[in-house]
């Protein structure tokens, strides 16, 4: 496997950090060096959250991904995909939950939510996968499973066996939510 740089972006409360922990544990189990770096922007109040995940066969020296250096971006909502697209490599892939969460400046009327974010992404990225992860998660039994739906969608892009993903979900998620999250992962994987 070549070095892999993945950005996981969303807003506070969506489960971006749990998704990055699951991904990091998978890479470690598969024998890779992994570095995670989390950046919280008023996350408890619905602000932006981004996690840099760097995976390599060699030692990873810096946890941060430079602009134009992400192989994959996993965006938990459209505006975060829009904000972070400059970090995607030209041949990179972006996975986007089509949910729109309006930030406070938009709610107050001080800013506009960008129009046709999906069109913008398609014009500026090589591989764009959009899915209603919120709808899929809700079908599975909890809106909070958006993170595992998106991990499932991204899993095909990475060289890790599906069984390893499911094992790490089982070992990381609270026991009473394991089956729900495994189902959400499978639905994302099929999407």
Task: Provide an overview of this structure.
This protein is α/β, with parallel strands linked by helices. It has a single domain (4-190), classed as Pyruvate-ferredoxin Oxidoreductase, domain 3 (3-Layer(aba) Sandwich), CATH 3.40.920.10. The chain is built from eight helices and six strands; from the N terminus they run βαβββαβααβαααα. A hairpin with a 7-residue loop joins strand 2 (33-40) and strand 3. The mean pLDDT is 92.
CATH topology tier name? Pyruvate-ferredoxin Oxidoreductase, domain 3
Helix content: 25-40%
Total count of helical runs of at least 4 residues: 8
Q: Please tell me the CATH architecture by its name.
A: 3-Layer(aba) Sandwich
List low-pLDDT spans. none
- Rg over CA atoms: 16 Å
Largest sheet geometry = 6 strands, mixed
Give, in order, the helices and strands: EHEEEHEHHEHHHH
CATH class: Alpha Beta
- What number of domains? 1
The CATH H-level superfamily is Pyruvate-ferredoxin oxidoreductase, PFOR, domain III
The overall average pLDDT, rounded, is 92
Content-based structural category: alpha/beta
Distance between the termini: 24 Å
């Amino acid at each position: 496997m070549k070095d892999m740089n993945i950005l996981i972006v969303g807003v506070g409360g969506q489960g971006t950090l749990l998704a990055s922990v699951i991904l990091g544990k998978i890479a470690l189990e598969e024998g890779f060096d992994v570095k995670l770096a989390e950046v919280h922007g008023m996350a408890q109040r619905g602000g932006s959250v981004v996690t840099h995940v760097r995976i390599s066969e060699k030692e990873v020296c810096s946890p941060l991904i430079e602009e134009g250096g992400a192989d994959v971006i996993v965006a938990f909502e459209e505006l975060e995909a829009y904000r972070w697209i400059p970090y995607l490599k030209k041949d990179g892939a972006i996975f986007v939950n089509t949910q729109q969460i309006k930030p406070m400046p938009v709610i107050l009327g001080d800013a506009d939510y960008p129009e046709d974010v999906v069109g913008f992404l398609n014009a500026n990225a090589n591989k764009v996968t959009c899915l209603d992860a919120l709808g899929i998660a809700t079908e599975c039994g909890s809106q909070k499973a958006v993170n595992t739906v998106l991990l499932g969608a991204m899993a095909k892009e990475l060289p890790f066996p599906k069984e390893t993903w499911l094992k790490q979900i089982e070992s990381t998620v609270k026991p009473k939510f394991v089956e729900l999250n495994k189902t959400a992962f499978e639905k994302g994987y099929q999407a």
